[in-house]
Amino acid sequence: xAALKKQKTFYDKKKExxxxxxxxxxxxxxxxxxxxxxxxxxxxxxxxGYPWSFTDAFIQYRKQKLNFNFDLWYMYSYxxxxxxxxxxxxNIAKDDRPIFECLFDFLSGNHLSCLKSLLDLSSSGNxxxxxxxxxxxxHYFKPLVPNGxxxxxxxxxxxxxxxxxxxxxxxxxxTSIGNKRVWHGKVDILLQRSIVKVSLEKDLEDLNLxxxxxxxxxxxxxxxxxxxxxxxxxxxxxxxxxVNAFFTSGKQKFLHNQFIPSFFVxxxxxxxxxxxxxxxxxxxxxxxxxxxxxxxxxxxxxTLIRVWLALNYSGSMDKxxxxxxxxxxxxxxxxFKKLLPDDAYSVYLNNMQQPLNSEKIxxxxxxxxxxxxxxxxxxxxxxxxxxxxxxxxxxxSARK
Length: 400
Fold this sequence. Notes:
By secondary structure, this protein is of the alpha+beta class. The chain has one domain (about 10-360, about 370-400). Helix content is about 40%, strand content about 15%. The longest helix has 24 residues, at about 230-250. Residues about 205-210, about 210-230 and about 360-380 have low confidence and may be disordered.
């Protein structure tokens, strides 16, 4: 009789993940990557107060020059991750344990090999939005949340019942959300408190949808007419993000006072988008690479960790340094509420649905990145580096 394979302990999984992640978890690769930013979006026009589907959603917005480094935003939780990797198993709080088990379990099973199939499909020209959706849902997002609950839109006739590589069953269902009196429609993936919108990178390139965040000069102006078609993809994303935030917080009212995360995904990049209902603040990250630029065919560890942080610790951002509150104080509101008729905003607050029912339809500028903060961002970043450096020394000691 063959010997039973010994199950890995939590400590074994943590150790395995540490070997995978520690090379990327250096201060230089975290706090010095200032391109990893969150920028507020300010609406000038939107049709969210009327019965439009996500496909027809339109938002004209500008980006506030005030921005915040993503890793400083999640510093409290990121430091906790470093401490746990460096420390012993019994140092983990009871509420944190299942969340960290998700991350440390990521290397188990077929996740990495199945995700790499995206690269093969892309190089062979056989990649589709459906394949990105199913592979990323099953092998990237699902493993990063404790209950692993997700649903993929069931309306596409070319969906496969199982992953073609590992044969794990894919969960399909009705992903319609919203209210037919306002923005509504189907999303690609429903995940815990989030939605995920999927697109092919080629489609965005064909639209000439360049990333404004990566321009040397970012002008705080409206989208010009020539860029109107390019903005539709982001309009669809943002409308879904806002609807999901209202639906999620409608079930749990305390979430009105937290950022609700959602994601925009291609085969190459992920954007994290956060919306806070009570403050009416909408933040969009720069593009985060799924694949490591230095190690061909390997996942970008820091993007994986950032997505895990956004999924599980967006509600803990108020535990970040005092300057977090100052940043929020001086951040422009999205104007979403201001642009809506009162009766439409009431629908968002009280009548979001998932799935949709069959109800009939009744018809300030800143001169530079420091302006408005009320504190020196460079000094703040330095203090954060010193704090994390202490944790990294403990991490190095744990490796020896």
